[in-house]
UniProtKB/TrEMBL annotation:
Similarity comment: Belongs to the cytochrome P450 family.
CDD domains, alphabetized: CYP71_clan
Designated name of the protein: Uncharacterized protein CYP786A1
Organism: Selaginella moellendorffii (Spikemoss)
Cofactor (UniProt): heme
Family annotation (PROSITE patterns): CYTOCHROME_P450
Domain of life: Eukaryota
One function term, GO molecular function aspect: iron ion binding
Pfam family, one: p450
Keywords attached to this entry: Heme, Iron, Metal-binding, Monooxygenase, Oxidoreductase, Signal
Signal peptide positions on this chain: 1-27
Annotated binding of heme, by residue: C456
């Protein structure tokens, strides 16, 4: 909310500063009827001078504002965000054209100022522009970091971190106390991914974080929030130097702390490897893999730090946000929760903890995860930038450097694609037309991780984490909601609930 208020205040100030100039010198230039220039563009709302349609994305989560605009202007519309020509896809058909037919055209990401600062000048996999560097990193991630074998190798670490966190839930259950599920879930996912990525065990066995560890944890959370914020300077580059919202200053401070942390991990790893050591429990973590292949893959230290930052920041956020939404929906739909628990009891029993090898047999749990990702995609709007000019099938001219916003939120709630589109109904994936629909980028009505070349490379690891955590929460406890659940959303790089979820656990496993 603070980021959104900052964006609104910055635009208000900008408008006040420029209105006099427009009236005297730019009135004719900016206020002329330029509809003749839009003949080869999709329909869209008329832009204001200079700021274009930016004002229409403020005051509420942008994915909701874009959804409302698409209801008036259609599933493919054109906006001018500041000086940036922007296409917005809000249907499966529109997404398919851009991410399949024109996949190579929209294979890059916007070069946002905060992302530049936090990712070592786009040295990472998420924000790197399309080119040799990105293709090389993608290959490293696919073959070495996120392969099925690599994900499987971290099973013990995930189990340990989940069990450690659930010990505090068990204490609360015995006392019939309220649990802050967001705190539990964010800790599970962050600590698990930190260990998988770096073998760093925050807080030790008792999870008592040092002052430095708390600062690093807060920095990771703030960095993800800042990258997802609407920064006026990204759309009006001539004003970027003013840093109206203060994002540049904050990003530099965050980057300094993150860099010190990641460099200390690299230095420690090199010393440890020099003595012949391996990762935690004898398993190479992701940092081990990157350092071991540094020379072969021509990776700089900055690139390694940028990739690890992607894994920790985006990976942990996606997982806990999805788990929180899933638990919120299950608390509001207790019949679905009980059915999931019965399935776990039938497949696993109640005399042992659910293992990752049990997950393939938990079909209804998979349906719950897919339905959660449909209604509450972790990235509600996915951003792309065109690498070359092209013409769409409808004859729209797309210039190099144009932006594409794929409104995943709107697509997955489109009544033309989904029966009972606004209902939480996991059974839809068990029978009928949606039985074979998956989240891995081939079914364009459900693309929470994107599609095509820029699909999330860590998708498999994230899904495994979500499934493991939910299975343990449902196997171990019955859950009672605390009053009515606030389902409002908070926009960012991820889309968490606006209000953290609380619930009362009751032990159920023998």
């Amino acid at each position: 909310m603070a980021a959104q208020a900052s964006s609104t205040a910055a635009l208000s100030l900008l408008w006040s500063l420029l209105v006099a100039i427009w009236k005297k010198t730019l009135g004719k230039l900016f206020f002329r009827d330029d509809r003749h220039q839009q003949d080869h563009m999709p329909p869209g709302p008329r832009p204001l001078p200079v700021i274009g349609n930016l004002h229409q994305l403020l005051g509420r989560p942008p994915h909701q504002a874009l959804l409302d605009l698409s209801k008036r202007h259609g599933p493919l519309m054109f906006l001018r965000l500041g000086c940036v020509p922007t296409f917005v896809a809000s249907s499966a058909e529109a997404a398919r054209e851009f991410l399949h037919t024109h996949d190579l055209v929209f294979a890059s990401r916007p070069r946002y100022a905060v992302a530049r600062e936090l990712t070592y000048n786009f040295a990472d996999i998420m924000w790197a522009p399309y080119g040799d560097h990105w293709r090389h990193l993608r290959k490293v991630c696919s073959l070495e970091l996120f392969s099925g074998k690599r994900v499987d190798s971290f099973e013990r670490l995930r189990k340990e971190e989940i069990s450690s966190a659930l010990a505090t839930v068990e204490e609360a259950a015995r006392a019939s106390s309220v649990v802050d599920l967001r705190a539990v879930l964010s800790d599970i996912t962050l600590y698990s991914i930190l260990r998988m990525a770096t073998s760093q065990e925050f807080g030790g066995k008792k999870k008592q974080l040092s002052r430095f560890e708390r600062r690093v944890k807060e920095t990771i959370e703030h960095a993800v929030e800042m990258i997802g914020a609407l920064n006026v300077g990204d759309y009006l580059p001539s004003l970027r130097w003013m840093d109206l919202q203060g994002y540049g200053r904050r990003a530099r401070k965050l980057h300094a702390l993150q860099d010190a942390f990641f460099q200390s991990l690299i230095d420690r790893k090199r010393q440890y490897q020099g003595r012949g050591g391996a990762g935690a429990g004898g398993v190479d973590d992701l940092l081990d893999v990157l350092l071991a292949s540094q020379e072969k893959n021509a990776l700089t230290d900055d690139t390694i730090k940028a990739v690890i930052q992607d894994v920790i920041g985006a990976g942990s956020d996606t997982a806990w946000v999805t788990c929180e939404w899933a638990m919120a929906e299950l608390l509001r739909h207790p019949t679905a929760m009980r059915r999931a628990q019965r399935e776990i009891d039938a497949v696993v029993g109640r005399d042992r903890v659910v293992e990752e090898s049990d997950l393939p047999g938990l079909n209804f749990l998979h349906a719950i995860v897919k339905e959660t990702l449909r209604l509450h995609p972790p990235s509600p709007v996915i951003l792309y930038e065109s690498t070359m000019p092209c013409v769409s099938s409808a004859g729209y001219r797309i210039a190099q450097g144009a932006r594409l916003l794929v409104n995943v939120y709107a697509i997955s709630r489109d009544a033309n694609s989904w029966e009972r589109a606004l209902d939480f109904w996991p059974e839809r994936f068990e029978e009928g037309a949606k039985k074979g629909v998956d989240v891995r980028g081939q079914n364009f009505e459900l693309i929470p991780f994107g599609s095509g070349r820029r699909i999330c490379p860590g998708m498999g690891m994230g899904l495994r984490m979500v499934q493991c955590v939910l299975a343990r929460l449902l196997q171990g406890f019955d859950w009672e909601k605390v009053g009515e659940i606030d389902m409002r959303e908070k926009f960012g790089l991820a889309m968490p609930k606006l209000v953290p979820l609380q619930a009362i656990p009751c032990p159920r496993r023998s």
